[in-house]
UniProtKB/TrEMBL annotation:
Gene Ontology cellular component list: cytoplasm
Organism (species): Sodalis ligni
Gene3D superfamilies per the UniProt record, alphabetical: 3.60.21.10
InterPro entries, per database record: Ap4A_hydrolase, Calcineurin-like_PHP, Metallo-depent_PP-like, Ser/Thr-sp_prot-phosphatase
Domain Serine/threonine specific protein phosphatases: 78-83
Source domain of life: Bacteria
Single GO biological process annotation from the record: RNA decapping
GO molecular function: bis(5'-nucleosyl)-tetraphosphatase (symmetrical) activity; phosphatase activity
Protein name per Swiss-Prot or TrEMBL: Serine/threonine protein phosphatase 1
Pfam families: Metallophos
PROSITE patterns per record: SER_THR_PHOSPHATASE
Amino acid sequence: MYQYVPGAVYRKIDAQKWRRIFIVGDLHGCFDLLLEKLERQGFDTEQDLLVSVGDLIDRGRQNLECLSLLREKWFCAVRGNHEQMAMDSLADNDPGLWLANGGDWFARLDSARQQQAKALIAECAALPLVIDIPMDQRHVVVAHADYPADNYYFDQPVDSEELVWSRRRIHRNQQGRGAPITGATHFFFGHTPLNRVRHFFNQYYIDTGAVYGGSLTLVEINTLPV
């Protein structure tokens, strides 16, 4: 199991420990689709690492299976807004927002599976909000929704809510008012469903709506252009 530091916003990954590193878009319960994509890529669970942009759960059918990925040594993730909604709902005993955004699967579980889900959702509290992957010629940064600063550096204080929820940067990009983020070569985000991967400057938006019948995007970062 990937070792997270509870409460840490940033987490650094040693790329030299892995043969290949992939980043995957929002899963939203599409577990079987993920396994199909990994098999087609020749993903090796002993040598390769999969990094998720978050939103493992809600709207799809295999939410427990996707949450269980957190216990695999070849998988890591940033926390998405759907994990955050689930955590807040269980902590406050107020499921309204979560239910309105696809969390109804939890209510349909039997008691034993609800307990399993609660334990896995509790583990999401330890997920970082930023994953930092320095490589020889590339420096890759992963967050769920945005990186809310125009210059990046590791452990820089930034607004955690914007990391998980903000669409400000992608809207600026779509309006032709975007700019690069300095401090790293590539930034990967999910959160905003799109009909294809969108690439603005050094920012990649890879939630391609798998749960809505779109594709599930998987990117091997070892082969990114430099």
